[in-house]
Amino acid sequence: MKKFIPFIIFCTLFGLLVSCDTCEDCNPLNKDPYINIAFINQDSLNKTNFAIAQADTLLLNLEQEIADIEQQITDAESEEEVSQLTIQRNQIQEQRTAVTSNRTRNQQVITQINAGRYRLSEYGILNGTRRSPAFSPGQDSVNSLERPYTLPLNMQEANSPFVLGATTRTDTLILSYQLETAQVDNAYFIDAFNVQVLQHSFDSVVFSPPCPTDAKCFSDETTLLLYF
């Protein structure tokens, strides 16, 4: 039995070395908790929706005018009268085409606004140093609902005050949350959950999708929509 003792010791030491062969396995790792944000221009959305509603009303009136003139053309008794009515109808049709084209452009604007496309020039900690936006991988400087901005949350405190700067405006956003440490394999991560908005300078803020009330809602599972 004694002759196997050195072999057993060797196997034990070798196993310990293999189980700790990389720094990744031997040291806990921290992952910055973050939250996704996207911007919705509510003011422009309201104005554009109003313009579309006006265009719809005008188009109905123009369609009725065209129908009335076409009936008059049918009932006309002279070529001169038909010619004058036709010119009038064609002018109204041209107006209808212009209104329809403008309505289409406004609808495209609505699509862009609802997509959350927005150019954030800088962000930072309130009363602290501002930094460039933290873009998702492959993202350019214009975000959207499909590719939201990611804001890192403070791992040392249960709240994060942000200042968000754009070309034409600067806003503030203060978030609170709970922190917990989670272990995945041999790595440790800091997770934030149950995020609440303490203060903001936007018109309104909405979580999408809404967080469930009967379970933990981790910060990276939802997007905070900022309406301005």
Plain-language structure description:
This protein starts with a helix and ends with a strand. Helix 3 runs antiparallel to helix 4 (79-114). The protein has helices at 5-19, 23-26, 42-75, 79-114, and strands at residues 34-40, 118-119, 122-125, 130-131, 142-143, 149-152, 159-165, 170-184, 187-200, 204-208, 223-227. The strands form 3 sheets. The chain has a 5-stranded antiparallel β-sheet with strand order 4-3-7-8-9, with no helix packed on it. The chain has a 4-stranded mixed β-sheet with strand order 6-1-11-10. A two-stranded antiparallel ribbon has the order 2-5. It has 228 residues and is α+β, with helices and mostly antiparallel strands.
Shape: elongated
Counting DSSP H or I runs of 4 or more residues, the number of helices is 4
Percentage of residues in strands: 25-35%
Largest sheet: 5 strands, antiparallel
Descriptive tags:
single chain; 228 residues; alpha+beta; five-stranded antiparallel sheet; four-stranded mixed sheet; 39% helix; disordered N terminus
Write the layout of secondary structure elements.
Elements: H1 5-19, H2 23-26, E1 34-40, H3 42-75, H4 79-114, E2 118-119, E3 122-125, E4 130-131, E5 142-143, E6 149-152, E7 159-165, E8 170-184, E9 187-200, E10 204-208, E11 223-227
Parallel strand pairs: 1-11
Antiparallel strand pairs: 1-6, 2-5, 3-4, 3-7, 7-8, 8-9, 10-11
Helix pairs in contact: 3-4
